[in-house]
Amino acid sequence: MSTNVFSNFRKKTFLAKVLTVLTAILFLMGVIGIAIAISARGKLKLAKAPIKITNVNDRYQAYKATLKRQILSKKAFKKWEKSLKKEKKSADAANDTRKKRVYSLNFKGDLHAREVDSLREEITAILSVATEGDEVVIHLESPGGSVVGYGLAASQLERIRARNIRLTVSVDKIAASGGYKMACVADHLVTAPFAMIGSIGVVMGLPNFHRLLKKKDIDYELLTAGEYKRTLTLFGENTNAARQKDQEKLEDFHTLFKDHIASYRPQVDIDRVGNGDYWAAKRALEMGLVDELITSDDLLLSMNETADIYEVRYNPPKKIIEKLSESSSELIKDAVLSLWETIRTSWY
Predict the structure, then answer these.
(1) Domain assignment of residue 270, yes or no
(2) Is residue 112 part of a domain?
(3) 45, 115, 196, 331 — which has fewest CB within 10 A?
(4) pLDDT average per 10 residues of sequence, the chain (348 residues)
């Protein structure tokens, strides 16, 4: 009996030790957790924004180094590399003030100016750090499109100028209609010599199936409240009054468009250029629509020695289905635009 009592005592003692150890471990974990929480209190937690930043100067330097490695002898390359490091060290020691910063953005606009969603995020990011003396360069390509879409896109560029930050717009291919509405906001507008510039006008068009429906004895009912809630329609019988009303709207949008351009480029004869026509950049330069003929490549290269250049891209994470959808839509869009450009430039 005494043996059983001793055995039970040992078991109880062992359990008590186990509980003591577990209690001590839990206590220590709690103390550590509290210490971590206290140390973290007051510290700013910075979320990583979906913005991709590329140092363009480094890219140019990598191009040069790669080519020199191939075309120079091993000895000559090492000598060049050594002199480069020496030049950089001397420049860093002699220059206490930071270089001007240039922020490079890309805007390739479609008919609905959907790219404005990325543009507004990129500009917001830049404006959080840019100061007077810095510069924003927009590489713009757009044949125009939606009045409201490109109106918003132009307003995004106006945000840059409102902060007294120099804005340069560079056009290599086309800035027409809404594209030029954006481009004209620039402090300095540069283009490649044969880029297409202008198309300062407004257009509206739609088919009407009323007679076809009538022929098939199909009625189309449209109820509205408000005299001008619907004017021209796809299926109803369009009237001259409706046509006149929509024409008045177009004329008003056109007036606003021309006023917008005149406010940013007062040197332009707006009555001459605001007729919907477009021109090669060489002719546009003569009319004051652009300021300089230079490609976007040479523009950035000319800044390489005197400025720190950063390419900024809004790059939100995307689901696989979104990536596949975008790829297919890009193929269709490129095919349509290619056909349209072929038709428009067939005279050349």
Answers:
(1) no
(2) yes
(3) 45
(4) 54 64 71 63 66 94 91 89 80 69 97 95 96 96 95 98 97 97 98 97 92 92 89 92 93 96 96 96 97 97 95 84 67 70 52
Q: What is the C-alpha separation between 48 and 315, in angstroms, rounded?
A: 12
- DSSP alpha helix (H) spans, the chain: 2-40, 56-71, 74-94, 116-127, 147-162, 178-183, 210-215, 240-264, 270-273, 281-286, 296-303, 320-344
Range of the domain at 83: 54-88
Is 125 in the same domain as 187? Answer: yes
Could you list the active site residues? Answer: 177, 229
Q: In this structure, is residue 34 part of a structural domain?
A: no
The total number of structural domains that make up the chain: 4
Cβ neighbours for 118, distance < 8 A, ≥ 6 positions apart: 313, 314
Asked if residue 158 lies in contact with residue 177, where contact means CB atoms within 8 angstroms, the answer is no
